[in-house]
Amino acid sequence: MYSIRRSHLNIPIELDYPGAWHPTTGHKANTNFGDSINAVFRDFEHPRWGAIESLSATKDIKAGEEIFADYNYPKKTPSLEALYKWYYDALEDYEARKWKEAQQENDRKEAKSIKKPKKKKKGKAQRSEIVSDSV
């Protein structure tokens, strides 16, 4: 039996063009990562087409709202990057953003753990020092 888990959008080249009919909803989802995802790909037994990949909502999706799923393409290789450069570019952008956010969060935590130096209070002694310096 063929496993459809190898690639979530395993559409043969001869059928991958605008106007081609696909018995799948995979082409209806945009790829995204992290918290933006509101759907996942799952195996589904279709009464006519047999085992197909389906989209299942992971949270409520309002009318007109975009459907986002991670296409989960395999680890980048030169041949896959040539085919799906847009996907690997988007994934690298997402990972860079998440890394930067994590660094900023760590910096905030570190800054909170460091005691700030106390500011000198302007008191009478400081005022008299200023007066004595000017004389």
Rg, Å, rounded = 28 Å
Q: In angstroms, what separates the terminal alpha carbons?
A: 98 Å
Major sheet characteristics: 2 strands, parallel
Total of domains: 2
CATH A-level architecture of the largest domain: Beta Complex
pLDDT below 50 for ≥5 consecutive residues: which ranges? 1-7
Number of helices: 3
What is the approximate shape? elongated
CATH class of the largest domain: Mainly Beta
Indicate the proportion of strand residues.
5-15%
Query: What is the name of the CATH topology of the largest domain?
Result: Beta-clip-like
Nearest-integer average pLDDT: 76
Give me the count of strands. 4
How do the SSEs run, as a string of H and E?
Answer: EEEEHHH
Largest sheet: spatial strand order? 1-4
Give the helix proportion (percent range): 25-40%
CATH superfamily of the largest domain, called what?
A: SET domain
- Assign the structural class, choosing from mainly alpha, mainly beta, alpha/beta, alpha+beta, or little secondary structure: alpha+beta
Description of the structure:
By secondary structure, the protein is of the alpha+beta class. The protein has 2 domains: 1-72, Beta-clip-like (Beta Complex), CATH 2.170.270.10; 74-114. The chain is 34% helix and 15% strand. The protein is built from 3 helices and 4 strands; from the N terminus they run E-E-E-E-H-H-H. The protein has helices spanning 78-83, 85-113, 124-134; strands at 30-31, 39-46, 50-57, 68-69. The strands form 2 sheets. It has a two-stranded parallel sheet. Strands 2-3 form a two-stranded antiparallel ribbon. The radius of gyration is 28 Å and the shape is elongated. The protein starts with 29 loop residues before the first strand and ends with a helix.
